Fold this sequence. Notes:
Layout: H1 5-15, H2 21-43, H3 46-52, H4 55-72, E1 84-89, E2 94-99, H5 101-106, H6 109-124, H7 128-146
Antiparallel strand pairs: 1-2
Amino acid sequence: MLFFSNRIEIIMQHKFWDYSSAYLISFYGFSTFIVISIFYFLANIRFIDRLIIPKKIRNKKVKERAIRHFMESGAYNTKERSGILIFISFLERRVELLADIGISKKIPQEKWDSIVQYIVNGIKENKISEHLSKAIEDCGKLLAIHFPIQPDDVNELKDDIDILEK
């Protein structure tokens, strides 16, 4: 802007019959405000976030958020360490399935990866509810095989869906 200040000042002198240097200063202030506003709004558009943030960082942040929610929700706090969390991030288009240590010792990661892929396919095909329902059933069947219901069992975790914002 300073590079063009002489030209801008000449244009303003021709446009305003009572020109003063305060007009140029006001023009700079207003222009700065407009540019900052544009960048602020662009920075808060989620689609643009996906374009400028590298995929590796997005994936890492989704994984970290899933782990944080796993811990904050207390999904690890079961007698046999048998909690799982299915974490879906629509913005990053990622699905994370976290299984507690008790489950990881008994069920191979490949089983969970296939369930995650099934959910991802459901998102791509716009059949999220059908695929997610079946994925939850499949998780239940896998857990029932390796963690059969005992007579003294109680439901240690809530069976709710948590919808997180941002």
